[in-house]
Amino acid sequence: MRTIPFLLFATTLAAQALPPVPVPPQNPITPAKTILGKLLFWEEQLSSNNRVACGTCHTFGAGGGDLRRAVHPGNDGLQPSPDDTFGSPGVPRSDANNDYIPDNRFGFLAQVTRRAAPSAFPAGYFPQLFWDGRASSTFVDPDTGAVLIPAGGALENQALAPLVAADEMGHDGRTFAEAVQKLTTAKPMALATNLPPDMAAAVAGGADYPDLFAAAFGTADVTAARIAMALATYQRTLVPDQTPWDRFQAGIPGAMTPQQINGMNVFNGPGRCNLCHTPGLFSDGQFRNLGLRPVAQDPGRQAITGNFADRGKFKVPSLRNVGLRASFMHTGQFTALNQVIGFYIGGGGPNLDNKDPLLQPLTAPPPVGVPPPAANDLLVFVSTALTDPRVAAGQFPFDRPTLRSQLLPPAGALYGAASAGSGGLVPQMRAGVPANVGNVDFKVGIDNARGGAPVVFLIALQPAAIQFQGVNVNVALGAELHVPGVLGGAAGVPGAGFGTLRVPLPPEPGLAGLSLFTQWWVWDTGVANGAASTRGAELAFF
């Protein structure tokens, strides 16, 4: 698929249903590749902490976006402040060894993306992806530099980027080779439960990822390019084209209500929404500046093209399934569609630098303006007539498993009480990485302790709730294992101490079902009893 014909197609698509999704001939859709891509889309083991899959941030129940909404403090690092945006929580920051380190914005908590997660579908129709279009049409093998897809490979490019992004699924300096090696030895869907039937059938009988790649590509080689091709293939099957609007366009009686039809007429008439959200795809595939924020806060498309005319521009998203979304715009600043419609009726945002000229106030009397009754009809049309019921209900092909991150809290399965250290600060346990057998990235962390202090990681077979020298102990003493160490951070500074115990878990099935009870003990000379402790954490192997 070439960019120019696509844009011509998108701008002339009015009142037509979606055509077949464009598929590059170098990556044809096959059943084996589709199911492999589906497994990979929901595979949390692709991340560096086994807590983030593609589907973590692209939730089908949220219209392909993210039901979660977390604050990014913007360029000034302050929160709250005018340049705050709302994005997706990813992974806590870790260094090149995958050990926890503090982030200057988020500390030891999950980092938050600077922009809200765009919808994962119908992504296959766009020649560039991400809000700024940095995932281009030409797909190059990241290992060899060979051009694998000359045009139409934006999905393949998009699929790879989060794997090595330090704030999304990776860590500082993560490489594709590292992600590939981990996937090669991982048990497929080891973390997920409630697998849809097609996913369960694919992994039945003990198939591993080399087996699945062999079925999809002919050989068992697991490569970054093949991961991208499988993920892109699966996403090209996620076409939400059974909305009331699609059925109405097909001439099905009663497909849309009178109010939805009135709203559609406002959309295509005085609302002027169709000028950018061209019916069919409900996007023109262009990049536009809505005047939301000053360009200095985020240059958008200009950062990719270097073109001054692109300053502050972002991709026009599809409105299909927008009624399911929990946040809107690349900033995530709106939480309800009526806020969005009010924004457009008012002529967009207040920042005039390079603001799109199509954005004009729609407050004049009819037939030019959009009075409240018409605005309500417009809201009903956009929020209901463009929703595919399969997406809303989680039905095939929009079904999904339950992810481990939905079951295990971010800090882990904590219990018991901690004891404060220097400065009255309480050391924090970080035990949110799942203890699945074979997890090469398993780790447990501590932070908010005294910098440079000696530390002991305690491991026992039973929990406890006792005190030793006035310090809370949450593991049964007597047969516990001690793992000593020294915390990083500025020596002697309260709250500056942090550390990581990183231990690859052996792929021994016999470990499944075992629970270990753990706690960090800090020798802290800044408190009277000479020690501080974290809460306990149960590490349940599976």
Describe, in plain words, how this protein is organized in 3D:
This protein is α+β, with helices and mostly antiparallel strands. 23% of the residues lie in helices and 15% in strands. The strands form seven sheets. Strands 9, 12, 15, 17, 18 and 19 form a six-stranded antiparallel β-sheet that branches. Helix 2 runs antiparallel to helix 7 (209-217), helix 4 crosses helix 8 and helix 12 (337-345) crosses helix 13. It is globular, with a radius of gyration of 26 Å. The model is unreliable at 1-14 (pLDDT under 50).
Return the CATH topology of the largest domain. Cytochrome Bc1 Complex, Chain D, domain 2
Radius of gyration: 26 Å
**Would you tell me the overall average pLDDT?**
95
Please bin the fraction of helical residues.
10-25%
How is the main sheet built? 6 strands, antiparallel
Uncertain regions: pLDDT < 50 for 5+ in a row? 1-14
Could you tell me how far the N terminus lies from the C terminus, measured between alpha carbons in angstroms?
45 Å
Q: Report the principal-axis shape.
A: globular
* CATH top level assignment of the largest domain: Mainly Alpha
Secondary structure category: alpha+beta
- Total separate domains: 3
Approximately what portion of the residues adopt beta-strand conformation? 15-25%
CATH architecture of the largest domain: Orthogonal Bundle
* Separate helix tally: 14
DSSP summary, beta strand count: 19
